[in-house]
Specification:
The chain has 121 residues and is of the alpha+beta class. It has one domain: START domain (Alpha-D-Glucose-1,6-Bisphosphate, Chain A, domain 4). The protein contains three helices and seven strands. The protein has a seven-stranded antiparallel sheet, covered by helices on one side. 14% of the residues are buried.
Length: 121
């Protein structure tokens, strides 16, 4: 079973002005209500692991699975019987950028997690 949620917003900010908010993991809590704190245990590149704490949930370990500086990054959280994938995309617009956040929950026990995932995304 797979479930996905997605939200996009347009900004007058240039794509290159948005990227630093993504790549500075320690400051994710400054702009994301789904993060109480976060840390990255190395450089912002594919394979690097980190940990973040959603509100009303235990801290979760994640791994960066894709990084295209200035354009997008993706991460994966392994849950018992499920996986949680996050994608963060920045697309150029004529004036500014479109910012898209996508969450995908999959796996045999994924039916256990939708309520808690939606509370934190």
């Amino acid at each position: 079973m797979t479930r996905s949620w997605e939200h996009s917003a347009e900004s007058t900010a240039a794509k290159e002005d948005v990227w630093p908010f993504y790549s500075d993991v320690a400051r994710w809590a400054d702009w994301s209500p789904g993060v109480e704190w976060a840390r990255l245990d190395g450089p912002f590149e594919i394979g690097t692991k980190g940990k973040s704490k959603p509100p009303s949930s235990p801290a979760l370990r994640f791994r960066l699975t894709a990084v295209e500086p200035g354009a997008m990054f993706a991460s994966e959280v392994r849950l018992p019987g499920a996986r949680l994938f996050f994608e963060h995309l920045i697309e150029d617009l004529e004036r500014g950028a479109r910012i898209t956040h996508r969450v995908t929950l999959s796996g045999p026990l994924s039916f256990l997690y939708p309520a808690s995932v939606r509370r934190t995304t």
